[in-house]
Amino acid sequence: MTIKEVLDKTITFFKAKGFHSPRLDAELLISHGLGLERLQLYLKFDQPLKEPELEKLRELVKRRTTGEPIAYILGKKDFYKNSFLVNKAVLIPRPETETLVEMAANFIEGKKPLKSFHVLDIGGGSGCIGISLAKEFPEIKVTIIEKSKEATDVIKENMVLNQVSNVTIYNLDAEDIEGFVEEYSEGHPAFDLIVSNPPYIDIEDKEVEDDVRKFEPQEALFADDKGYVFLKSWANKYSSLLNNDGMMIFEMGYTQGDAILEHLTKLNIFKSVKIKKDLAEKDRFIAMAK
Length: 290
Hints:
- This protein is of the alpha/beta class.
- It has two domains: about 5-65, Helicase, Ruva Protein, domain 3, CATH 1.10.8.10; about 80-290, Vaccinia Virus protein VP39 (Rossmann fold, 3-Layer(aba) Sandwich), CATH 3.40.50.
- It has twelve helices and eleven strands.
- It has helices at about 5-15, 20-35, 40-45, 50-65, 70-75, 95-110, 130-135, 150-160, 175-185, 210-215, 230-240, 255-265; strands at about 75-80, 80-85, 120, 140-145, 165-170, 190-195, 200, 220-225, 240-250, 270-275, 285-290.
- The longest helix is centred in the N-terminal third of the chain and has 15 residues, at about 50-65.
- It is elongated and about 65 Å long.
């Protein structure tokens, strides 16, 4: 079979399975399996494939048909301006979260010069938020807190991949702010910007796709108190580490805006609390200024 025949057959198969992007999935899997760029598939349409190559592609297709996300099969995901290694220990970076990075970058840009500017990323996962900011602004310092040892290892790999040296990682439970302050080696930590994409999905949420529940880390997705527990807890606890004129930006569920806005406003610890929308015009971020 040629590359074209395998590609056409895979696209047809994925369409029958009801995949959202059958052509893209097929192109990504086949190019990955053959060690080619996607464009090269079309430049080498007539190239015949040997049995070991076909067998490798069959295995990749089989994994995809179980519902395993493409990013886990490829072992990487493009996010913002960079590429990040991912595995089942970390949440796959979402396009919506790129808007959080853009909001954070705009805030940082307005604070130049940045010699002492310090960012905290709570619950870093793959490190995509903190590392993106660290690479965009090499003069700032970025601290990431991540509970999972396996996820912490992924962050370290992504630091190397993206060639950043201005990131410090703490393998700690973000709920234990006292433990973080104690571990922090430069006295009492103080940050100009605190960002987070915390677990914010209600475990009973019926909109969560089966494949997300099956393959992605549950502790990075779901939270008690109908998804609010970490949004409330981290905003409250970590406000004490936020400098005056500093900003907190958290991602949240698109139905959570009104309730979390009311809760955080009543705390009376922020100068302003505002809801920000994503590119789909849905409530997606809560920005808290001190």
